[in-house]
Amino acid sequence: MLGRGLQMTRVICRLMSRKLSAGLHRNILKNMHPSIDIWSVRSSLKNIRSVTMAPWPFSSSGPRDYSLPNPSWRSEMQRLYEHYNSMCEVETEGGEKLKGPWIRLASYNRALKYAPGGQCLSKFLQAKARLFTRNIEEQGAGFEYVVFVNKQEKTCVCVFQAGHLLEGPPGLVHGGAIATIMDSVTGTHAAYLSGPVMTANLTINYRSPIPLGSVVLVHSSVGEIDGRKTLLSCQVTSSDGSKLHTEATGLFISVSVGNLLM
Ligand SMILES: CCCCCCCCCCCC(=O)SCCNC(=O)CCNC(=O)[C@H](O)C(C)(C)COP(=O)(O)OP(=O)(O)OC[C@H]1O[C@@H](n2cnc3c(N)ncnc32)[C@H](O)[C@@H]1OP(=O)(O)O
């Protein structure tokens, strides 16, 4: 049986979707043109500022879930994926939840389109938008990663394989690519915990270089959640955890759905 919270969230999302569509349709009918009166959309979005989001808005029913294994994954990446996946919660046909405390977060290249209520908006506002970390089509060339969240401990781990397009110093991963994956993992973790957020700051210390093509773990844990502020800490380690590559803290501020679309 689906949890009551999830059912409630679905109802809210359906209502959200209607509100968003209503705002859009008014403008489309008025102008007969897909250039949107952004202020009208913004004002209709203001009404949904206090919506409580589902812990994770994406189901595994999108066209391509980028967090699933593909042939470019090295054996270490596959092994770690299977390790965490074997501890993941599964739901039986009868709705019973079995197995461990982890869940794998599905990941798509179009964050708006596959979020509840976002399908209509994505056609007009961000038709060409693609998630930065998921827009290199060649498998294994860029960011290969899968994120798992531990619901009991409220921690998060990402298995990350850095492809050849992420080079910085010869043979090593670019610092900006490391920052990107840390921002993505902590941002995803914060969104899972607190709903829609924006990164307010990310403070990074690079301790040891990451070899290009290697598989590392990105760990994220909660420092503090205080009102709109979610403070997380993050470490990138070698896949066996013995070597620290990078550490960071990130502050995420909860925002309204409208903020994310403007
Ligand atoms: C589901 C999808 C999955 C999709 C999965 C994809 C995951 C990818 C995640 C990527 C995430 C990103 O890269 S986001 C993109 C990069 N980030 C940005 O562009 C953010 C730009 N900045 C902003 O938009 C804004 O400054 C905000 C939203 C962060 C805050 O603005 P605001 O909403 O007006 O809030 P404001 O009143 O200023 O601040 C609220 C409280 O936070 C504090 N505060 C605000 N900023 C800071 C700061 N930098 N450092 C310290 N503290 C700060 C304030 O002092 C205040 O504390 P007090 O007085 O209340 O105590």
TrEMBL record:
<keyword id="KW-0443">Lipid metabolism</keyword>
<keyword id="KW-0496">Mitochondrion</keyword>
<comment type="similarity">
    <text>Belongs to the THEM4/THEM5 thioesterase family.</text>
</comment>
<dbReference type="GO" id="GO:0032587">
    <property type="term" value="C:ruffle membrane"/>
</dbReference>
<dbReference type="InterPro" id="IPR052365">
    <property type="entry name" value="THEM4/THEM5_acyl-CoA_thioest"/>
</dbReference>
<protein>
    <recommendedName>
        <fullName>Acyl-coenzyme A thioesterase THEM4</fullName>
        <ecNumber>3.1.2.2</ecNumber>
    </recommendedName>
</protein>
<keyword id="KW-0378">Hydrolase</keyword>
<keyword id="KW-0809">Transit peptide</keyword>
<keyword id="KW-0276">Fatty acid metabolism</keyword>
<feature type="domain" description="Thioesterase">
    <location>
        <begin position="171"/>
        <end position="243"/>
    </location>
</feature>
<dbReference type="GO" id="GO:0005758">
    <property type="term" value="C:mitochondrial intermembrane space"/>
</dbReference>
<keyword id="KW-0999">Mitochondrion inner membrane</keyword>
<dbReference type="InterPro" id="IPR006683">
    <property type="entry name" value="Thioestr_dom"/>
</dbReference>
<dbReference type="GO" id="GO:0016787">
    <property type="term" value="F:hydrolase activity"/>
</dbReference>
<dbReference type="InterPro" id="IPR029069">
    <property type="entry name" value="HotDog_dom_sf"/>
</dbReference>
<dbReference type="GO" id="GO:0006915">
    <property type="term" value="P:apoptotic process"/>
</dbReference>
<keyword id="KW-0966">Cell projection</keyword>
<keyword id="KW-1003">Cell membrane</keyword>
<dbReference type="GO" id="GO:0006631">
    <property type="term" value="P:fatty acid metabolic process"/>
</dbReference>
<keyword id="KW-0963">Cytoplasm</keyword>
<dbReference type="Pfam" id="PF03061">
    <property type="entry name" value="4HBT"/>
</dbReference>
<keyword id="KW-0472">Membrane</keyword>
<dbReference type="GO" id="GO:0005743">
    <property type="term" value="C:mitochondrial inner membrane"/>
</dbReference>
<keyword id="KW-0053">Apoptosis</keyword>
